Amino acid sequence: MPEFHAQLRVRLRPGVLDPAGQAVAHSLKDLGFAAREVAVGKLLELTLPAPTAEAAEAEVRRMAAELLVNPVLEDFELEISAR
Amino acid sequence: MRADILVFPGSNCDIDTEIALKSALPGWRVERQWHDGADLSGTQFCVLPGGFAYGDYLRAGALAARSPAIAELRALIGRGGLVLGICNGFQVLVEAGILPGAFQANTVQHFVCRDVHLRVESRGSPFLEAFREGQVLRLPIAHQEGNYRLSEDEYRRLRDEGRIAFTYCGPNGEIGDERNPNGSYAGVAGVLAEGGRVLGMMPHPERAAWPAIGRADGLGILAASFGSVLEGGKL
Prior knowledge:
The complex is a heterodimer of chains A (83) and B (235).
Chain A: E1 3-12, H1 19-30, E2 42-49, H2 53-68, E3 74-82
Antiparallel strand pairs in A: 1-2, 1-3
Chain B: E1 2-7, H1 14-24, E2 29-34, E3 45-48, H2 69-78, E4 82-86, H3 88-95, E5 102-104, E6 112-120, E7 136-143, E8 147-149, H4 152-160, E9 164-169, E10 188-192, E11 198-201, H5 219-222, H6 226-230
Parallel strand pairs in B: 1-2, 1-3, 3-4, 4-11
Antiparallel strand pairs in B: 5-8, 6-7, 6-9, 9-10, 10-11
């Protein structure tokens, strides 16, 4: 079966307070940088076997729903590529 | 009667909890059970202790909440058993969907380790029967991700159902942002599942269960009137 590579970019939903982003923004400011709206997210990468890219995407979306993403606070973008 | 403490890799309050439970529940068999292969079939009361289960990888409590031991825990809840999640244990119960809401990093952006005051908001639970509504307790907190998030609707529903257990407050029960150590929605420090037999709370009752050092407010939670609740039950 072919293998696919999946990349999930997980970020806090708009409007959810991001204390880590705020802390990083503060440090950037201390260093003299002008950066606003800093957001800290997560990048998850995995490889999985699947018959097609569509099937791989469906499977990773199930993983996201069951474990990888907390829908109360987080959103994600998913990118699937053939290996 | 048997009380079990579920231990995950990274749990670190399990021994404190064991010692406190042994003192709070004389005559009970109190044991720590490693999560892998845990058997709660003979248990009446299970505690999920504080710590950093699975290193809090992914999200605090997320990986522990998907471990097979949680199926055992759900079975215990299904037959009316008592479950207490303390700190990281509360995070596990939320990640497992047994309690509502979600956790985020403290708004103060650092680990908070100090005593707080709590107002008892409900008596609809065996864990809270020792107290009166509005009573102020003093317990320690120690967490980085204790910012408990609820939607306004969820909060109202929990409040109307008597499922808000504790709110952070001042020494005389004053509520307000300046009394909120971590940014939790409406200062909520602990909530109950439907029926009141599952309690999740960020403060540590096991660290304040010792009358000899003048710190005993946690004892009432740990030694809740389980006798009357479990009497005649088929647990």
